[in-house]
Request: fold
Amino acid sequence: MVNQRVKTVIEDLETTLCAFMRKHQISHSEYRAATDLIIQSIKLGEESLLFDVFFEAEASDISNNERQGSPEAIEGPFYLRGAPQLYPPYVMPQRDNEPGELLFFKGAITDLEGNPVPEAELDLWHADALGLYSNIHPGIPDWNLRGRFYANKQGQYEIQSILPPPYEIPKAGPTGAVLSALGRHCFRPAHLHVKVKHPAFGEMTSQLYFEGGEYLDNDVASAVRDGLVAKLVYRDSAEDLAIRGLTKPYY
Ligand code: BEZ
Ligand code: FE
Reply:
């Protein structure tokens, strides 16, 4: 059975790519180099990386045109379903003495009028202090710095983790080769990935960046958007320290 949406989109892609090839006079060896690059990226399990770096932000922006509220941002290639369910007080799964500065990520989920949305699920994942993701890069315990938790009845949430740094995406394979040929770096600004889910409001995928962070203006994945840059507040009041039973400052 013909799927009209697939037919419209694929036929337009075919026409657009053929016109593009004519415009740039793509030779057979250039065509073969391009197909080899895609095949190689699949063999190395890097096809999501390749496509997400160049195209995912566009898809996410197009979806944002149809919705209101906080913008979505790319999921990226390192999301995994089924992160551990956490219980309050929320602390991201981490190693003993997980390297990195202490971070408390807090906020509130509201509807478009600012009314609290109670008990939404947050699925949070981010890189470690070396810019590496558990279950993707070797030598890190499974599900490290990945977890699911809930906002409270007033829509507020808070979780303890570590502050991820800006990081370089894997650059040894085809994606790195293309970026290098374009003269681009491979860095993303420091960020937290989050999916927020609620039975009445559905699901959204986004990211949070940090004000003043490096690469905010030239993210390799072009995925920084207004409204997603959060403020880091240094919390070292005696009250804050006492609440956590800490003896030294934290963020
Ligand atoms: C990330 O945010 O983890 C990411 C996004 C796009 C490409 C590579 C990594
Ligand atoms: Fe990331």
